[in-house]
Amino acid sequence: MPQNKSSWDHWKLLTKNGRQVWAFKADSQNIDDHLKHADNFSEQELHAFSDDFAYNRQLNPTSADQVFRDHAIKKNGHHYSGDIPKVETAEEQTLIDSLIKGMHYFSQLQSDEGHWPGDYGGPLFLLPGLLITAYISDTPFPKPHQEMMQVYLFSHQHSDGGWGMHVEGQPTMFSTVMQYVSLRLLGIDKDDARLRKASAWIKENGGAASIPSWGKFYLSILNLYHWDGFNSLFPEMWLLPTWLPVHPSRYWCHSRMVYLPMAYCQSHRIQAVEDDLILSLRKEIYNEDYDTIDWEKQRNRVCEKDCYTKQSPILKWMNLFTNTFEKFNPAWLRAKTSAYLIRYINAEDAQTDYLDIGPVSQAINSICTWHAYGKDSEQFKKHVARWYDYLWVAEDGMKMSGYNGSQLWDVAFTTRAMLESDLGLLFPETIKKSYQFIDNMQILAEHETHQEFFRHPMIGSWPFSTAEQGWPVADCTAEGISATLAVHKTGLIKSGISDHRIQQAVDVILSFQNKDGGWPTYELSRSPKWLEKLNPSEIFADIMIDYSWTECSSACVIALLEILEHYPEYKTREIPQAISRGLQFVVKQQNADGSWYGGWAVCFTYASWFAVEALVQGKDFIDPELRLNCINKACDFLLNKQMSDGGWGETYESCSDMVYTQAKTSQVVNTAWALLALQAATQNNKEAIQRGINLLLERQLDNGDWPQENISGVFNYNCMITYSSYRNIFPIWALNRFYQHKGY
Ligand code: LAN
Questions:
Q1: Pocket of ligand 1 (CB under 6 A)
Q2: Best residue for ligand 1 mutational test, from 600, 719, 723 (most atoms within 8 Å of Cβ)
């Protein structure tokens, strides 16, 4: 329910071509001027934040993006005045009314440039990274921002004093120490009751010495851990020949781009100046006397609440070597390494206009740039300007987003969901704006340094967020194509994305297919799977190389199938071959129980939907018996998991435990995925489908929205991320499919 409070109105989201920045007391739409009134506040106004943004994580730790949504409805809200098709049966009329209400509500949230801004929070280790960066570089955020960050950090504290790795997770050492330190950097007194509880949690669970490696890194930067306690990343590895499977250019791009600036920081042993706060913190988070800690002994210590991926014996051997090397490393070699690292960091900054690939590297690249060029340098200032692209205001306070947004992804899905039936055409302006946005987000040029710094060719691709962020993603390219074709099919648009550009996108998709037939996320798998044995993170799994995934593969297969239909003359040999190999990969990924594991959302219902959709549409490219068998098994699996109220519901534990984990109550997003799969399978499951549809209809709110339930997204098995638009997109899609199939 809307619970708008007066200080919510002090914050306003400004957007420009997909860029999103929250401004304090903005009086214009000028995004470059968003800090104009950041100093214009009274103490009273700041204090009101903690009342107005009061948040009860017991009710649901995943926030519902109410601030943005309330503002958008206030600004754009209007009654639906278009047609409402009149039909004979009451059931069908109810369905149509619900769909129109759902699409009308969601259309009002669309930005002028055509995307759906939204909360992309969830992980709790991101904001601390940025606050540590702000502290060491002495570049504090304006007071109103700081106050809102405090609100957020306290909003997600558990009653035992700790914090989880993500908003729904159980407390861990990594997260609890990170939030504790952040709150202290934000000026909260150590005797604050909430912080005393947190400090007690830390000490009871072994103290900060047992923080996992990423925490050791951040604490070392703050001069709260000794660099000797951090297993060396062996920065010199970057100078080894690139054909070696361990060369970092072969890592998954997210790991590569995080370990790159981390290696720079380690190579210089960057650390904050020892001030009173640091000295005091050393007493607050350790059980031991800080000065007596034997740091080398701490390197492999990990609090058991945090440990998700155990260090392998090979990694331990390798650490022995790299830590020893670190002691004897000649200065000239270090200087050469460091020069290479900063050159690479500069290239990534230039290629992404300082957004960098994600929130972790954005903050750490900022530290490197500050260290290399100083606080007054242009490079550092450009970094600081981009900090704000990663901040988001919701009813739980100000958080750091998991990316600079999910812009392209949400627009592509929404377009496809709405155009699943011709009811979507009742919203031509929404579709046109979406198309315009998709048009603007396609990546049309290569960077000068793309080859030198290991980038996959990307002309014609689509990114997950915005073109200026500029990292192409395989399945985002697929969704970009599918959405474009869906719009072209309607005849609504006369000119825009040309055949040539679509074919360029197809070429990119073809170039992304792995040897195993599947599709990865951003780049081909560049090393064998055994490299995973060197995963040093302790808290994430499968981060070392870019693997093939069921969802990414299915999305690419589906896009290629659609291309065959629209462009039957294009690449007549390669496309069918790629499709068959892709489908074989998908078949291989199926579990014995008929499900597929989802790597990027919760979880088995998500991936099973993608896989079933690909298998259904790919009927001419796979053995019919095999295909039918896989689809039937998948449907049996899904039917088996249907809950008594007709819905489906999984929790995030499905992702981390890799076992289907039933939620206490059904979830609209899981229900929609299961329904999309079952309906695509055109099986005789009418009754089950009808019960699921009824649940979606019942759960819809009066204003056309659906409630925000459990967190939907995930990465690296163990960290969850919010997709606030999923609660609208997928119910609309599933209902629209029901209408299209005349399922009533
Ligand atoms: C994303 C978001 C989108 C997601 C899909 C397109 C949905 C997926 O099908 C492929 C993988 C991809 C692109 C993806 C990869 C991992 C990301 C980038 C994220 C989940 C968003 C945030 C996450 C990133 C790794 C978070 C930063 C944290 C670190 C541990 C570096």
A1: 254, 258, 358-360, 402-403, 409, 464, 473, 475-476, 521, 551-552, 600, 715, 721
A2: 600
Structural tokens at position 441? 């987000």
In ligand 1, the atom with minimum distance to the C-alpha of 409 is 6
Q: Which tokens is 457 given?
A: 């060719």
Chain position carrying tokens 């071959």: 577
Supply the residue whose CA is at minimum distance from atom 5 of ligand 1: 600
Amino acid at 171: P
Domains of the chain, residue spans: 126-290+302-400
Atom of ligand 1 nearest to the CA of 521: 10
Nearest-angstrom CA–CA distance, 690 and 675: 9
> Helix crossing, 126-136 with 213-221: angle to 10°?
20
Residues 6 or more apart whose CB falls under 8 angstroms from that of 324 comprise: none
Which pLDDT score, from 0 to 100, does residue 684 have? 78
Outline where 648-685 has alpha helix (H).
Answer: 653-657, 668-680
**pLDDT value of position 2:** 45
Please state which of the four CATH numbers 1.20.200.10, 1.50.10.20, 3.40.1350.10, 3.40.50.720 is assigned to the domain occupying 126-290+302-400. Answer: 1.50.10.20
* Ligand 1 geometric centre to CA of 666 (Å): 26
| Catalytic position from the list 475, 542, 546, 705 | 475
Q: What is the CA(473)–ligand 1 centre distance, in A?
A: 10
CB 295 within 8 A of CB 226: yes
Nearest CA to ligand 1 atom 7: 600
Name which of 480, 513, 509, 618 is nearest 561 in CA terms. 618
Helical (H) or strand (E) element with 21? strand 19-24
Below-70 pLDDT ranges, the chain? 1-4, 683, 743-744
Q: What is the pLDDT of residues 630-687, one digit of tens each?
A: 999 999 999 999 999 999 999 999 999 999 999 999 999 999 999 999 999 976 799 9
Closest residue CA from atom 26 of ligand 1: 402
Q: Which atom of ligand 1 is nearest to the CA of 255?
A: 31
User: What is the C-alpha to C-alpha distance for residues 81 and 640, in angstroms, rounded to an integer?
Assistant: 42
Residue with tokens 């011709």: 422
Q: Is 33 a catalytic residue?
A: no
Q: Taking a C-beta distance cutoff of 8 angstroms, is the pair 405, 465 a contact?
A: yes
CA 721–ligand 1 middle distance (angstroms): 9
Element (H, E) at 737: helix 726-740
Residue 665, CB-side half-sphere exposure with 13 Å CA sphere:
9
Neighbours of 332 (CB within 10 A): 8
Give the pLDDT of residue 1: 43
Q: What's the rounded Cα separation, in Å, for the pair 334 and 326? A: 10
Rounded distance from Cα 240 to ligand 1 centre (Å): 28
- pLDDT in the model for residue 88: 86
Tokens 């607050």 -> residue: 284
Rounded to the nearest whole angstrom, what is the distance from the C-alpha of residue 145 to the centroid of ligand 1?
A: 26
Spatial distance between the Cα atoms of 444 and 455, rounded to a whole number of angstroms: 15
So what's the pLDDT on residue 514? 98
Torsion of CA 30, 34, 38, 44, to 10 degrees: 80
Residue nearest to atom 1 of ligand 1 (CA): 715
pTM for the complete prediction? 0.97
